[in-house]
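Service request form, structural biology core

Requester: graduate student, group of Dr. S.
Request type: structure prediction, single chain
Budget code: on file
Notes: please return the result as structure tokens.

Sequence provided:
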Amino acid sequence: MSTTTEILYARTDAVLGSFAIRAMDPLTDAELLHGWVTHPKAAFWMMQDASLPDVEREYMKIAAAEHHDAFIGLHEGRPAFLMERYDPSRLELVGLYDAEPGDVGMHFLVAPSDTPLHGFTRAVITTVMAALFADPAVRRVVVEPDVDNKAVHALNEAVGFVPERPVQKPEKTALLSFCTREQFEAATGLTTGASI
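Core staff response, request fulfilled:
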């Protein structure tokens, strides 16, 4: 059992410094997450009207789930982003695509900031992807962002994602996209290793 202070993955960005990922605790992190998921910039997270108890419940459900995990991302030791990892053959995309062994689904959300750093969101998604590929069992990352979320499509492309097609989910029309380990390494120049 991980403690919330145990670092599961860490990397250093040449420009922006240290990034790390730790386990999320639904009780101690709920207030922090509530501020992030209800912020106007998090509209695509679809929790704009969530109360603090709603957020606690949602992340307790994720913490208890067999095929879904949530993590807090740190920048220079301070909470700065949320990362979720899930099995797309069992959640989110069941019946909407042909799952392959080694597929992992991912969501990420950058915390709102009064002092945005140039390149920060790209450094976050790079960290999230490197953390996922640190698991040697992961061969491909699968994402399903809203088709209208042009900003995240550009970020996804920057780390190697290739869009396949729109898929209709109950809550949105999503752009199904894939990124293999090789595509990620070619796009970012990083070599993956270690473990999460």
